[in-house]
Amino acid sequence: MDLTPRQEQILSIVKADGPITGENIADRLSLTRATLRPDLAILTMAGFLDARPRVGYFFTGKTGTELVSDKIKKLKVREYYSVPVVVNDQVSVYDAICSMFLEDVGTLFVVDKQSLLIGVLSRKDLLRASMGQQELHEIPVHIIMTRLPKIKYCEKDDLLIDASLKLIENQIDALPVIAKRESGLEVVGRLTKTNVTKAFVELVKSEEV
Ligand code: ADP
């Protein structure tokens, strides 16, 4: 975030003499409190300054990088996940390939009759199954899928950074977003590397006011 010369001046006053009231900062710059209000709001919202009633503004001591990292650590899966695409465990590999194309996704989640998670199918799982001389209409996906308990998943309230670490550490493209039920794991969403990339871009865009 680029600060204006006046915002830089405010920062150095608060750094040197904070906590200091808005009134006092205004006096030091020979400006009115009203003129300074937008600058103080920006500096506070961006996290450079903090304000306490009757005490005034003080410097948070955080660098730009620390502020960005603070923001990233607050992002939740619930703000970024996509709609899941699921198939039943009895469908054929051929039909799963069709679903992957039609729904334009790279990962399918396999569910049982109660819509509970039992497997994951990636592009390469389906490619691998197609390489032999096998009858793709005859092989059900449960033969080739990655199954529980091997499946890595996340929940809506998990931090996006924790879910992203799971994607990286396990070298996978997507996590099912699940809700825990007594009978198992209900699939409620899909968190992919694309969702994380979008979060990254949005974070930068939100700074460009
Ligand atoms: P691709 O294989 O198309 O590159 P992935 O890297 O996502 O896609 O998948 C690699 C392997 O990991 C596949 O065998 C897939 O079934 C499995 N896999 C994918 N997602 C998960 C997950 N969330 N939990 C466990 N295994 C997964």
TrEMBL record:
<dbReference type="InterPro" id="IPR036390">
    <property type="entry name" value="WH_DNA-bd_sf"/>
</dbReference>
<feature type="domain" description="CBS">
    <location>
        <begin position="145"/>
        <end position="206"/>
    </location>
</feature>
<feature type="domain" description="CBS">
    <location>
        <begin position="77"/>
        <end position="139"/>
    </location>
</feature>
<dbReference type="InterPro" id="IPR016842">
    <property type="entry name" value="UCP026546_HTH-CBS"/>
</dbReference>
<dbReference type="InterPro" id="IPR000644">
    <property type="entry name" value="CBS_dom"/>
</dbReference>
<keyword id="KW-0677">Repeat</keyword>
<protein>
    <submittedName>
        <fullName>Transcriptional repressor CcpN</fullName>
    </submittedName>
</protein>
<dbReference type="InterPro" id="IPR051462">
    <property type="entry name" value="CBS_domain-containing"/>
</dbReference>
<dbReference type="Pfam" id="PF08279">
    <property type="entry name" value="HTH_11"/>
</dbReference>
<dbReference type="InterPro" id="IPR013196">
    <property type="entry name" value="HTH_11"/>
</dbReference>
<keyword id="KW-0129">CBS domain</keyword>
<dbReference type="InterPro" id="IPR046342">
    <property type="entry name" value="CBS_dom_sf"/>
</dbReference>
<dbReference type="InterPro" id="IPR036388">
    <property type="entry name" value="WH-like_DNA-bd_sf"/>
</dbReference>
<dbReference type="Pfam" id="PF00571">
    <property type="entry name" value="CBS"/>
</dbReference>
